[in-house]
Design goal:
4-stranded antiparallel β-sheet, disordered C terminus, two-stranded parallel ribbon, 6 helices, 196 residues, alpha+beta
Length: 196
Amino acid sequence: MHDMEILFLDEPTVGLDAVARRRILRYLRDRARGGLSIVFTTHILHEADLLCDRIAVLHLGHLIALDTAEELKRRYGGAREVSMTLESALAPNLRIDLGRELGVRRAVLLEPSDGRLLPTNQLAFRAERAEELLPWLSQWTQAHGLTVERLSVEEATLEGAFLGMIGDADENGEGKTTPEPPPADHLPPGRNGAVP
């Protein structure tokens, strides 16, 4: 690849195997660190998070956000998943009590979406402010004589932030925050928005 000041790439890793994909991403990261400006389009949000200093989010032809990955995740990341493994099984009445208490704290006890049953000593829940919930959760388990073996919080992801930005769009593309199509005077020259 010749030397240049700016490089435009449109989904450069599509169709690549894992080894080639990692090689391309490493090369791009190193070139960017060396001062090359790169405009990189991708639907693979993990790649954008890994490589980009600033991220522009487009939805239905509209620019809806422009910021760093960290700021987008902080502002739009929404609820995060918390996993907890107890030393012993959680009694059904305590599970009900925990679910009720979590609801007061704007958190939801989760069941696996694929129909599997979690072992009775494993819990998963989603919380808007997971970092604030952890001290309470520690106190709750101690108050009920439970020993926590493992507790983890899933980090906010750029994908979660993107979904937070576009609203509750479902698989059919229907959602609460769908932007209006651009007005005709915002179309490229020579277009009037009419379909021939």
